[in-house]
Amino acid sequence: MSMDFQATLKILGKQAKKEAEQHRIEAVEAKKHEEEQVDFAKAVGAVRPLKNSQRYETPRPKTNLKPRPKTENSLSEEDYFYVGRDNWDEPPASFSKNGQGKNDIQRLRNGHYPVVADVDLHGYTQEEAQQVLNGFIEFTKKRGVCGEIVHGSGLGSSGYKPVLKNMTRRWLMQHPDVLAYVEPRQGNDGAVRILLKRPRREE
């Protein structure tokens, strides 16, 4: 009887060691993943809001796009991309250009692309958020093709209408450098993971 008990203890001991080692490996990988990500807001610092011009700019055509400056670290005001303040309908949970790119959406969901930067838009007005998004796109493009944007679910908005969420997703749908976005975590619609076009190599 005691032999069976000793054998059981050995088995339990081995299982405990195996589980402890597995937890250690997972903790190391999680820490490594966290270190690889860059917090855009911390890296860039405080945002200075642009003057509210109340202007509406139609989406830029795909042809004859105005080239962005290559020698400057930040965009000038006229290079910023904006969408109007229309009462947007609820945008889709996932999106890809021209209704295609199912592989892009699936890869984004599966974590195929490393998230190189993230930003939280809580506390910004619509115009300030668009300013931040413009800078975030450029910041992310210099480091990779995938970033994560936290815009919130909008449950605390007036009339329970998600203003920032709707604006952010419509902005992403119209931006020429954004190929796709998805909700990174099932059951949480307060964030999106985005896929950007790869920069063209200069010849």
Automatic annotation (TrEMBL):
<dbReference type="InterPro" id="IPR036063">
    <property type="entry name" value="Smr_dom_sf"/>
</dbReference>
<feature type="domain" description="Smr">
    <location>
        <begin position="119"/>
        <end position="197"/>
    </location>
</feature>
<dbReference type="InterPro" id="IPR002625">
    <property type="entry name" value="Smr_dom"/>
</dbReference>
<dbReference type="Pfam" id="PF01713">
    <property type="entry name" value="Smr"/>
</dbReference>
<feature type="region of interest" description="Disordered">
    <location>
        <begin position="42"/>
        <end position="76"/>
    </location>
</feature>
<protein>
    <submittedName>
        <fullName>Smr domain protein</fullName>
    </submittedName>
</protein>
